[in-house]
Amino acid sequence: MDKKDYGNLYLCATPIGNLEDISLRALRLLREADLVAAEDTRHTIKLLNHYGISKPLISYHEHNQRTRGADLIAALKEGKTVIYCSDAGMPGISDPGADLVRLARQEGIGVSVLPGPSAGITGLVLSGLSTDRFSFEGFLPRNNKERNDLLERLAAEDRTIILYESPHRLKRTLKDLYKYLGDRKISLARELTKVHEQVLSLTIKEAQAYYEQTEPRGEFVLVIEGNKSLAKTFDFEGISIKDHILTYINKGLSKKEAIRLTTRDRQIPKREVYQASIGIIEDDSGDQD
Ligand code: SAM
Known about the structure:
Blueprint: E1 8-12, H1 24-32, E2 35-38, H2 41-50, E3 57-59, H3 65-77, E4 82-85, H4 97-106, E5 110-114, H5 119-127, E6 134-139, H6 144-155, E7 160-165, H7 170-181, E8 185-190, E9 198-203, H8 204-213, E10 220-224, H9 228-231, H10 241-250, H11 255-266, H12 270-277
Parallel strand pairs: 1-4, 1-5, 2-3, 2-4, 6-7
Antiparallel strand pairs: 7-10, 8-9, 8-10
Helix pairs in contact: 6-7, 7-8, 10-11, 11-12
This protein binds S-adenosylmethionine.
């Protein structure tokens, strides 16, 4: 079939707890679609039933992605309209939706998004922490080395950090956050948009103490204040670019991170900062010319 006759793939955002959080456009397209693919058909059927929509439903999740991906692409190439819904929220954010988009794009198939809720953005806005600049990190890796490497990097992150976490891993994550990031403000949001929605604004240490007494329940969005000591620009008037970089390195940051922050502080092109950094080695104490 000619590419112009291919069907379109829609990524449909679905409610993260409150069934009313779905757009009119999403409902119309769900009614008109030929096929609905779902990360968990049991979740999606509840949504479809609630709105009286009856559609052929097939699963597409991390364990059947390869075979099902090929089936979905075949259906799209036959001209069918396919809608993908993940368990909750915006498909493609910490779920298999992103792979489906990649696959469709590789085949020249049109992709559209039916926008709606995403747990990370909802938790961020409710946190009361800075929303100006943020770093969405999804779930922390389970592999120890990858996890520790990322946490080390996050210790120097000056933007607000957003994480997803499940209840049975929350305590370990709070322990690791305290170890690598120190005591900072954290917002713990659970059951977002549901009747028992709860947003706790604590420090990481207080959160650890709280969850020693209370069993974590429900899925969490953790929003953590960025590294304030680095976010606050120091007075760099009169100091050279190189000394500026070295100030950060002497605070324990990597050269790469020091270059990033120096570029941010001085609002100059990154290549100028790179140029000034030539010859600096990570454990340089600033005593070379
Ligand atoms: N694609 C989804 C989105 O855009 O929100 C996220 C998918 S990810 C597999 C699921 C995670 O989102 C959960 O483990 C939890 O961290 C977070 N989450 C989803 N719904 C939530 C809710 N109602 N309250 C708090 N966190 C939620």
